[in-house]
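ugh ok fine here u go
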Amino acid sequence: MSAKIFIDGEAGTTGLQIRDRLATRSDLELLSIPENLRKDLGARAALLNEADVAILCLPDEAARQSVALIENDTTRVIDASTAFRTAPGWVYGFPEMDKGQGQKIAEAKRVANPGCYPQGPIIMLAPLIRAGLIGADMAISVNAISGYSGGGRQMIEAYEAQGRDASVFLPYGLEFNHKHLPEMKLHTGLKRDLLFQPMVGNYAQGMMTMVPLNLAGIKGAPKGADLHGAIGAHLGEIESDFVELMAFGGEPGPKDLDPQSLNNTNQMRLFVFANDQRQQALLVALYDNLGKGASGAAVQNLDLMLGRQRQSA
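structure:
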């Protein structure tokens, strides 16, 4: 029997990508709202309550409104906004985050799809904190670059209108109060706020998140191989199909750290670089901000909730 799926906000960047990924699925029935009724609360409520799973691709307030329109106890929700990522009663939709997280998602009524930027730092830092290699009270910085599609329709239009005149790298969020900070802090297990410095690159999609670590202040400072081993042990426990830890050591090739290298997939690739003599390390995660960072993650969560075998590439 086909599961009924309603994408509330299917005309946006993430919604369109999710719909494209689901369009050829014979095990699903996609419900759609006519363009002229997208702002009609009655029409949206009818589809939300008809769906087996509603995927919300909306601004925060609109997402909260959609959840409030659901009057039954059968419609399950995947929300792609920021609204519920640290909310009680919602399961964080990052299966690789922790052992057992995939099962929690599979059983959940309400799943908060993770933000794109936080996933790399979470999967790299949380295992190190749990293993006691770095402290939860350590001052952590995260640097990141994403394609301009991560900024939504307005940023896409602005960048594409500028063409070659667009900035190659544009730092932003320089008030250091980015919307992703609460989920990064909560799900890494850190006790203090991170310093997060994102950038937009003059390309459409693909991202790289980087966590530099100064290990000199840590008693019995861990070596690079220790960091790599702890992350590898974590991935071994969760048996992920989508996250790969690259071999430790050596200089990366010119294409190894290309933030666009995993575009249009749900894959994530992790690296650990270190200089033990200097007691310094760098953790790097590559993934697609529209794939593993958004639509691919939503489809992966949907498959878990429906008990389907792996569908997301």
